[in-house]
Design brief:
The chain is built from one helix and nine strands. The strands form three sheets. Strands 1-8-3-6 form a four-stranded antiparallel β-sheet, with no helix packed on it. The chain is mostly beta strands.
Length: 135
């Protein structure tokens, strides 16, 4: 197995002999920050971050959920805190907190799926100028 193969998520048939259906939970939690509007804007997308690359600084205007399909991910927040996610992890990022994503890997792109849930009148993501950290 190559290093690249070792950090890719393989989704394969999880059925046992004779089964017709099975659901494997990746994320199951109570979440209190969903839009309260009668309807919600739902945005689903895939993303890639090059090895060693960063996203722009931004914030999420609603609930966000991510699934890492390949590689590694780090979120660097304006206040200096960080968190990491690896292959197969599902995570959420806080609403309204300025941050940027980073791929700390040196060989493989970080690839994943994102879902944003916002009020219909709000953009899912707002890009911001780079903050001054440590001042």
């Amino acid at each position: 197995m190559t290093p690249e193969e070792a950090i890719r998520l393989e989704i394969y048939d999880i059925l046992e002999h004779g089964e017709q259906f099975r659901r494997a939970f990746l994320f199951d939690t109570l979440y209190e920050s969903l839009p309260r509007d009668p309807s919600a804007r739902v945005q689903m997308y895939h993303y890639s971050i090059a090895p060693g690359g960063y996203t722009n600084w931004h914030l999420h205007n609603g609930a966000t959920f991510f699934l890492v399909l390949q590689g590694e991910f780090e979120a660097h927040f304006e206040d200096g805190t960080r968190f990491s996610a690896k292959l197969g992890d599902v995570y959420t990022e806080p609403i309204g907190k300025v941050h940027r994503g980073h791929n700390p890997g040196s060989e493989v792109p970080n690839i994943g799926i994102g879902i944003n849930l916002t009020s219909p009148d709000r953009e899912p993501v707002t890009n911001v100028t780079a903050p001054v950290i440590g001042s």
